[in-house]
Amino acid sequence: MPASKSLPALVLSASLLAAGVMSATAAAAADGAKVFNLQCRTCHAAKSSVAGPSLNGVAGRRIAGLSDFAYSSALKSKGGSWTDAALDAYLAAPAKFAPGGRMFNAVAAPGDRAAVIAYLKTLK
Questions:
Q1: CA-wise closest residue to 33 among 43, 21, 23, 45
Q2: Where does the chain cross the membrane (predicted)?
Q3: Which residue in 34, 84, 91, 93 has its CB near the most CB atoms, within 10 A?
Protein backbone atom coordinates (compact mmCIF):
# COMPACT_ATOMS: atom_id res chain seq x y z
CA MET A 1 0.00 0.00 0.00
CA PRO A 2 1.43 3.42 -0.89
CA ALA A 3 2.43 5.63 2.05
CA SER A 4 -0.22 8.21 1.12
CA LYS A 5 -2.97 5.60 1.60
CA SER A 6 -1.58 4.10 4.81
CA LEU A 7 -1.35 7.44 6.65
CA PRO A 8 -5.14 7.80 7.15
CA ALA A 9 -5.29 4.22 8.42
CA LEU A 10 -2.45 4.95 10.83
CA VAL A 11 -4.17 8.11 12.09
CA LEU A 12 -7.44 6.22 12.56
CA SER A 13 -5.67 3.41 14.43
CA ALA A 14 -3.89 5.87 16.73
CA SER A 15 -7.17 7.70 17.43
CA LEU A 16 -8.97 4.48 18.31
CA LEU A 17 -6.13 3.38 20.56
CA ALA A 18 -6.13 6.75 22.35
CA ALA A 19 -9.91 6.58 22.81
CA GLY A 20 -9.58 3.10 24.31
CA VAL A 21 -6.91 4.28 26.74
CA MET A 22 -9.01 7.28 27.76
CA SER A 23 -12.04 5.03 28.27
CA ALA A 24 -10.00 2.64 30.41
CA THR A 25 -8.65 5.55 32.46
CA ALA A 26 -12.13 7.00 32.94
CA ALA A 27 -13.45 3.58 33.99
CA ALA A 28 -10.59 3.13 36.46
CA ALA A 29 -11.26 6.59 37.93
CA ALA A 30 -14.96 5.77 38.29
CA ASP A 31 -14.07 2.52 40.07
CA GLY A 32 -11.63 4.48 42.23
CA ALA A 33 -14.34 6.94 43.23
CA LYS A 34 -16.42 4.01 44.50
CA VAL A 35 -13.51 2.62 46.55
CA PHE A 36 -12.70 6.13 47.82
CA ASN A 37 -16.30 6.63 48.98
CA LEU A 38 -16.26 3.29 50.81
CA GLN A 39 -12.80 3.43 52.38
CA CYS A 40 -11.47 6.99 52.42
CA ARG A 41 -14.31 9.48 52.61
CA THR A 42 -14.76 9.19 56.37
CA CYS A 43 -11.50 11.10 56.87
CA HIS A 44 -10.80 12.66 53.48
CA ALA A 45 -12.96 14.81 51.30
CA ALA A 46 -11.94 15.35 47.73
CA LYS A 47 -12.05 19.13 47.95
CA SER A 48 -11.95 20.04 51.65
CA SER A 49 -10.43 18.71 54.84
CA VAL A 50 -12.42 16.51 57.20
CA ALA A 51 -9.99 14.64 59.51
CA GLY A 52 -7.29 14.10 56.89
CA PRO A 53 -5.94 16.63 54.42
CA SER A 54 -7.77 17.67 51.29
CA LEU A 55 -6.89 15.39 48.40
CA ASN A 56 -7.68 18.00 45.77
CA GLY A 57 -4.55 18.10 43.59
CA VAL A 58 -2.74 15.44 45.63
CA ALA A 59 -1.27 13.60 42.62
CA GLY A 60 2.15 15.12 42.03
CA ARG A 61 1.96 17.36 45.10
CA ARG A 62 4.80 17.45 47.61
CA ILE A 63 4.23 14.91 50.41
CA ALA A 64 2.84 16.75 53.46
CA GLY A 65 2.65 19.79 51.21
CA LEU A 66 -0.49 21.63 52.30
CA SER A 67 0.30 24.56 54.56
CA ASP A 68 -3.15 24.52 56.19
CA PHE A 69 -3.00 20.93 57.49
CA ALA A 70 -1.14 19.65 60.56
CA TYR A 71 0.64 16.57 59.19
CA SER A 72 2.31 14.02 61.44
CA SER A 73 6.07 14.37 61.82
CA ALA A 74 6.36 10.92 60.22
CA LEU A 75 4.78 12.15 57.00
CA LYS A 76 6.58 15.51 57.12
CA SER A 77 9.92 13.70 57.22
CA LYS A 78 9.20 11.61 54.10
CA GLY A 79 10.13 14.19 51.48
CA GLY A 80 9.40 13.73 47.80
CA SER A 81 6.15 13.97 45.91
CA TRP A 82 2.98 11.93 45.62
CA THR A 83 3.95 9.93 42.56
CA ASP A 84 1.95 6.87 41.53
CA ALA A 85 4.53 4.67 43.28
CA ALA A 86 4.44 6.72 46.50
CA LEU A 87 0.64 6.78 46.54
CA ASP A 88 0.54 3.03 45.94
CA ALA A 89 3.02 2.32 48.75
CA TYR A 90 1.16 4.61 51.16
CA LEU A 91 -2.26 3.21 50.34
CA ALA A 92 -0.96 -0.37 50.60
CA ALA A 93 0.62 0.06 54.04
CA PRO A 94 0.39 3.53 55.59
CA ALA A 95 2.20 2.51 58.80
CA LYS A 96 5.07 1.00 56.82
CA PHE A 97 5.33 4.00 54.48
CA ALA A 98 5.34 6.54 57.33
CA PRO A 99 5.83 4.79 60.71
CA GLY A 100 4.13 6.84 63.40
CA GLY A 101 1.76 8.50 60.95
CA ARG A 102 -1.94 8.88 61.65
CA MET A 103 -3.44 7.16 58.60
CA PHE A 104 -4.51 3.66 59.50
CA ASN A 105 -6.81 2.47 56.72
CA ALA A 106 -5.02 0.56 53.96
CA VAL A 107 -6.37 -0.31 50.52
CA ALA A 108 -5.31 -3.95 50.32
CA ALA A 109 -6.17 -4.95 46.75
CA PRO A 110 -3.69 -3.74 44.10
CA GLY A 111 -6.50 -3.15 41.60
CA ASP A 112 -8.41 -1.03 44.10
CA ARG A 113 -5.26 1.01 44.82
CA ALA A 114 -4.70 1.60 41.09
CA ALA A 115 -8.32 2.70 40.74
CA VAL A 116 -8.09 5.06 43.72
CA ILE A 117 -4.90 6.58 42.27
CA ALA A 118 -6.66 7.05 38.92
CA TYR A 119 -9.49 8.80 40.78
CA LEU A 120 -7.10 10.99 42.79
CA LYS A 121 -5.54 12.16 39.52
CA THR A 122 -8.92 13.57 38.48
CA LEU A 123 -9.09 15.81 41.54
CA LYS A 124 -7.77 19.17 40.48
A1: 45
A2: none
A3: 91
Task: Tell me the pLDDT tens digit for each residue of 29-51.
Answer: 999 999 999 999 989 876 666 78
**65/55 Cα distance (integer angstroms):** 11
4 in any annotated domain: no
d(C-alpha 60, C-alpha 120), whole Å: 10
What does the pLDDT read at residue 25? Answer: 82
SS3 annotation, 54-120: CCCCCCCCECCCCCCCCCCHHHHCCCCECCHHHHHHHHHCHHHHCCCCCCCCCCCCHHHHHHHHHHH
